[in-house]
Fold each of these.
Amino acid sequence: MGLMHILRIYLKLVLRLKNEQIDIIKIGGSIITNKSEYRTLRKKQLLLLSKELAKWEKKCIIIHGAGSFGHTVANQYSIHLGFSNQNQLKGILQIRKDMLELTEAVTHSLVENGVNALSFQTSAIVFENEGGFSFHFNPVKKALSLGFCPILSGDVLFTEAKGFRIFSGDALIRLLVQHFDVGRVIFISDVDGLFLQDPETKEDKLVSSLTTNDFENVEIGELNQDDSKDVTGEMRGKIEEIKSILEHTSEVILVNGFHPERLTLVREGDKFVGTTIINENST
Ligand code: IP8
């Protein structure tokens, strides 16, 4: 067998493996909910996104943010600080009820538009031990292989040390990329992408593409105007999460969900307004 032939077989194999990689799509809470009004769904935005996601050809897992269905009550009861009093249980019950409602709205909208969306409750399959996480992703993996599109979200997670904590959708993605073969992680939020300060003009500019190396070294100019209502610090926290996600994926994409047509361009592999961070070390 000639060298060229072996090379061709190898390339085919790599391509096949690449094709089997899944996408993880995070729909930010800022897109599908009005973050400043408790339990307010942005129905129209959810519908537009569902129509886009129905055309997604690659297998994917969709993670939705909590927005005003999770963060408002989490703040009120200081759920992110862990267990301190029995009254917090009321808060957790309320968050569960509200998040079930949001997950149902997301799943229903996707199903109505033709996605085989099937929801899983994060805190039922992930637990935080003293030394890390224990989890049971087999049901999600099986569902994915059968043709379902698993839907998960951030959640109130039970933990060994503090009783409970808020586990963001981004933290969940960080865990998922270590246990699924993920090609791209796409963050759909209410900002255009990553803004960096131009050293000359001192103005923040949208960066359309950068490598993980650039990403490690840049000074973050501006990502989001207001993340004060978000107990997981949606945008500020995201930078650290993205760095760690990129250790296991080839690309992270940031795109504004208020422009669903940009998502079409992402899906079709065309140039879009947004940011792509490429892992130059991935094959
Ligand atoms: O919106 C937070 O998830 P995120 C989850 O992805 C809760 O940060 C329940 C507040």
Amino acid sequence: MDRFVIAIDGPSGTGKSTVAKHLARQLRAGYLDTGAMYRIVTLAILRAGVDPADEAAVADHLPLVQFHSPTDPDRQQHDLDGDDVTAQIRGGDVTLAVTPVSANPAVREWLMERQQQLAHTGRMVVEGRDIGTVIAPDATLKVYLTADESERARRRHRQNGAVNVPAAPNDLDAVRADLNRRDTVDSGRATAPLRAADDAIHLDSSDLTADQVVEQILAFAAERGIN
Ligand code: DC
């Protein structure tokens, strides 16, 4: 199949990024990290000195935001105004401010067009919160990834240490509190809340390695003619 979308949705820390990237490599497909797009817009808002909670001011600033989103799973460099901000978008300031920015309907609408266009460029694995419900309701395969809370906190804690994220919460309890804060707001927001699509396959990754999750998804994909 030369055109497909595999949607990988779910809360923070379930291993979505690792799994989606592996999957894209195995299938020689592109990979789109929509969370990174919300993070880049958030960084642009912070750099401009705009209050992330001021919906109208954030909306007014959007036309000035210039960024590039990579789709190669092996070259995930994120640029904002020509600067490499790959590490900075994972930092504590952005992680805090991305919640109001991603709940802003103007931001979601602005990014939606770009995400829909990139998602439909061929063989694509797309990761986020609303891919199966809003960005690609026509996706060939939809996976909703979950994991129990302490496992999610452990994984994100490890990930923060591995990439040496500046100003990220660095004790396990702070990481857990931050995941809970984001998921509660993401699930409760009015526009495109975190929710599984009715036709999504639910996969609990708590007791599985990333490779095992990828294997299971590859099997579901093969059933749909994707290989
Ligand atoms: O996946 P992530 O943690 O990098 O995402 C950052 C934030 O962006 C997250 O708190 C929720 C939001 N997000 C969203 O609202 N919709 C998406 N499709 C992807 C991310």
Amino acid sequence: MTTLLKNGYLVDSMNNREGVFDVLIKDRFVSAVAANMDAPADRTVDCSGLTVIPGICDMHVHLRDPGQTHKEDFVTAGEAAVAGGVTAVMCMANTVPAVDSPERVRDIVKRAETSKVKIYPCAAVTVGQGGSELCDFEALKQAGAVAVSDDGKPVENARLMMEAMIRARLAGLKIISHCEDTDISGDGIMNEGAVSAKLGVNGISRTSENIMTMREICLANDLKAHIHIAHVSTKEAIKYINMAVNLGIMVTCETAPHYFTLTDEELLKKDADYRMNPPLREFDDVLEITKALCNDMFDCIVSDHAPHAEREKADFKTAPFGVTGLETLLPVTLTRLYHTGKLPVSKIVRMMCVNPRRILGIGGGGIEAGSAADIAVFDLNENWTVEPGKLRSKSKNTCFKGMRLKGRVKYTLVNGEVVYEDK
Ligand code: DOR
Ligand code: ZN
């Protein structure tokens, strides 16, 4: 089977190639990239006026399988992913039970075959994500884990995190930290500030995130080990990380679209669909996170896709943290960063397609002869409105509901097959 993507505007940041090109795909792989190719193909997709990029790798996704498939499963997550131009996801370990053994990693690798996208498991740092006993990282790696994280929770005990970072390095696994000091965040349900005071609810202080980010930087420095900081939401945390990077400390980091788009003012609606952890912060944070994105301080933009059922999100105060994001990741980023003139598409591609794969060591992220044909094609200028009911995820808890976006995925290919087409 051959497919020709004709006349698209290719943005391949990994190979520093940008311009109007044809991409010829033979079976699972890209066989040629050239201008005005005159190759016969079983299917020709007219990509004139569209942008062609490597499929996105979203390295922060909660897939909910096993244990909570009423929220999401491999199939629905795959449908949501491809509708967002995402062809690879790393799934977090906070399932029920947690992914803390080689058997559970293998189970995910096997069952994830039913999904339209490539799924890479992140295993837990501690047994049952209980924070007291480390998992067997070597065995997890052998079973197919690409990283370890207790995401959803921090590893509270610094001594244990030290040990974990050493063992992760020995096993050749990346370790990802959800930075939160739970003694400080306590039972807070949103950012601590003027808005939480006005609503009379307990807040999550920015100090909770900042202090843990600093701890991880100290550990990475002292151990000469690498740490990846998940979902950075405060203006201080990104400054600390940038300072660390400038000192040569091995820290990488990510943020998510809601942190450079929305503030805690949204919570005045008393709608739990705006509650996630870390929480939406303040205007200055949005400003500084955006600036940091422009100044190449972030390695990755991820969705932190965290689906929850409607009934679970019904009560503003007691609902679980989390928002869906696979389908809005690219469109929100294009709307907020590209269409405002802040970032070129090439940098967005770097943060969504190239860097996550480099950090996880899973290969891919470019479009050249020989590479797996995992590709997203989008219309930079198509306007649409986020209607939760029309999204493909099993859960509808998006904090972008009603938002007008500019940029829409038209085709997604995984292993050379058109697995999504916007009709
Ligand atoms: O908002 C969040 N939701 N933050 C997390 O760390 C966990 C996630 C979830 O699993 O729902
Ligand atoms: Zn987290």
Amino acid sequence: MSNESFEPLLIAFCCQYCSYSAADLAGSMRLQYPTNVRIVRTPCTGRLEVEFFMKAFEKGADGILVAGCLEGGCHFTEGNLLAKGRVGYTQKFLSECGLEAQRIRMINISAAQARPLVDHINDMLATLKSIGPSPLKRVNQPKNAEMNV
Ligand code: FES
């Protein structure tokens, strides 16, 4: 498949206190982002385990964006710091497997930062488009399979 026609699927795990609210605000502000991003609301990014990321890749994600509160602003004290470590671990794991570490990224934003969130989503999609489809998709995955992560 040429990267010209490739439309990556991006899963954005968004903390309900910050980035999920920023995504809501983006909607209210009529800021647009492509339809190939799926936003998954999480109580805190600290809830996310490495297994969740690998399951998302297996189920068809080409990339994962983890969006948590600003450092020092997590409502569960250090959930976003735990998530940062898990994202770093996953990047290292992907690299060691010969895959692109850029397939997963963590950002920290506040609920008021709708524009930066949209910019990060667009930047991540551009990165994924340039590196191509993820080889981690499970073979024989139904085309419109549910993303039950
Ligand atoms: Fe937002 Fe923890 S409450 S990252």
